[in-house]
User: Fold this.
Amino acid sequence: MAKRKRKGNRRQSTIPASEPPVRPHMQSPRRTVPAGIARPPYAITGDPGPSVLPIVRTPAEIDAMRNAGQVAAEVLLHVGEHVRPGVTTDKLDQIAHDETIARGGYPSPLNYRGYPKSVCTSVNEVICHGIPDSRQLQDGDIVNIDVTVFIEGVHGDTSVTFLVGDVDEHSRHLVRETRAALYKAIDVVRPGARVNDIGRAIEQHAHANDLSVVREFIGHGVGPEFHSALAIPHYYDRRATTEITEHMSFTIEPMLNLGEAGLYLWDDDWTAVTADGRRSAQFEHTLVVTGDGVEIMTKTSSGTTPADVFAEAVV
Ligand code: MF3
Ligand code: CO
Ligand code: CO
Assistant:
């Protein structure tokens, strides 16, 4: 193959910024959680403190994570059924909040480092951490909904990018290949592999599909802590040589862009948007490493995942 002078290509430069740009709308008052629901330690102060726990889980923790992952997946599936033109992202937040509580869980984002809502809803050029508000989804939008549930002392963290109504082909390509990049990465996870094998798999798939990889947000250790010390870059990082071992627990959550990888934050200090205004998609699973591979924690009781159920729509 000819040497590539630079990343990116003709295809990228012909894809326009998403129009009109997403703008902040009104946020609803903070939602409450009934006293009977067990909260993570940061729920009161907003401060999770430093990560102090090991990067591998006990068998009891793994059992709990299987349950937390299932609840997160089922909440996400339920919310996804309400994605349609006209629905506000605040309404989706309310549905996720209520469904999480109905299942005995705490919506992990709520007051995590002061985050004001129970899920993240990231529309079009919003890369991640979009705050649900009164904006109505529009026909042709894409929206990532990121659900994390805390239950029985552990977190389950999963997200899907949904199509809203009739979506253009560039965006469908973006969503389809971002999902594929997550599964290619999951395929390389096994004891003895290195953390940077994950980023390599994602980056190769992204570049082969004319997409760029966001670098500022990465996968993370997850378990009793929402974000623990283990870092999982979605790009190839020469220094990320940590060996993957049995019972490690972490997320993989690639964010891929139609344009350049650069981003900036809105004044709310949460919402990350692409610098060039072109669209971004993300998929996420919570994983635990097994003796010879990996188990996806964030799947429903029937063994499917929201990513699988909605894959059919992403044709
Ligand atoms: N669920 C996100 C992740 O995948 C984290 C959201 S933190 C919040 O890591 F505070 F924005 F909710
Ligand atoms: Co995550
Ligand atoms: Co998440």
Notes: The pocket of MF3 (ligand 1) is lined by residues 109, 112-113, 115, 120, 129, 146, 148, 157, 251, 253, 284 (CB under 6 Å). The longest strand covers residues 142-151.
